[in-house]
Design brief:
alpha/beta; TIM Barrel; 11 helices; about 35% helix; globular
């Protein structure tokens, strides 16, 4: 693939908040020794989200067992699971008065359950710590999980579902043609099957996300959207892929805002209940607002 010029187009530039506005979040994370996907994945929205008082917690360590071509998270041999981490995540959610808590993880193919019990323990800890209303509205927060595929093991998927999150997110990330390049250790159909399993349980919102700018064709994105709807996916995010370093896959194309608007309209026409599409959109970017804007079930 040929790399694009380093200069970003004007729609990919944003003002960063003063460092002082991000300090409360950084202080809580540092005190409680917690990781975030914002930091480990080099998210372009990090300073904006920290400035808003939010962060996406990264559990199960900071080292992933997979090596995706687009991802800045370190790959290698992870350390042992920290049994006290769920409690610290819950403490951070309460300290930051989060109204919507998003928890994700590295992929842990080294664990027999893929880390699903740790997800369940984290959900339970947040529920217990915030049961009496810990957020800015003095209500218990909603909880969103963004999980790996657990290698397709239904018992691990259901373990997380039964822990009672409000939103179950699992990203397909890109179109199936690009999986060997971008996600060589993942399987597109396995991700769709995970979403089918979750959707079949009922009672929680299913969500997935895509990056564009990796060389996909418009019609391929539409095919993935249709497949996600067929799998029972309720909510969709679509954002611009940005290369974390020279060692990662190059950006093939900067997708202009009007194309994101078209994707938004096409996704809503397919029946997605919530859609966020734009250059800076990421799985957990303004995730609380996406949940609040949810269309009624069955609405198009």
């Amino acid at each position: 693939m040929a790399a694009v010029p380093r200069r970003y187009p004007p729609w990919l530039r944003k003002r960063l908040p003063p460092e002082a506005e991000t300090r409360p979040v950084r202080d809580v994370l540092g005190r409680l020794r917690l990781e975030t996907v914002c930091q480990n994945a080099a998210c372009p929205n990090l300073w904006e989200c920290f400035g808003r008082g939010t962060a996406t917690f990264l559990i199960l360590g900071r080292v992933c067992t997979r090596a995706c071509g687009y991802c800045a998270v370190s790959e290698g041999v992870p350390g042992p699971v920290d049994a006290e981490e769920p409690g610290r995540v819950a403490e951070a959610a309460a300290a930051l008065k989060l109204r919507h808590v998003v928890v994700t993880s590295v992929t842990r193919d080294d664990l027999a359950d893929g880390g699903s019990a740790h997800f369940a323990a984290t959900i339970a800890a947040i529920r217990e710590r915030t049961a009496n209303g810990a957020n800015r509205a003095n209500e218990a927060p909603t909880i969103e999980v963004l999980t790996p595929d657990f290698q397709g093991r239904e018992e691990d998927i259901l373990r997380v579902v039964q822990a009672g999150p409000d939103v179950y997110n699992h990203n397909v990330e890109t179109v199936p043609r690009l999986y060997p390049l971008a996600r060589p250790q993942a399987r597109y159909e396995r991700s769709l099957d995970l979403l089918r399993v979750v959707a079949a349980q009922g009672g929680l919102l299913t969500k997935s996300g895509l990056m564009v700018g990796l060389g996909e064709r418009h019609e391929e994105v539409l095919e993935v959207m249709a497949a996600l709807r067929e799998a029972g996916c309720d909510a969709l995010t679509i954002g611009q892929y940005l290369r974390p370093s020279a060692e990662h896959l190059p950006v093939e194309r900067f997708v202009p805002p009007e194309e994101f608007d078209a994707y938004d309209a096409e996704a809503r026409a397919l029946g997605f209940r919530a859609v966020a599409a734009g250059p800076f959109v990421r799985s957990s970017y303004h995730a609380d607002a996406l949940l609040e804007g949810l269309a009624p079930a069955g609405a198009c």
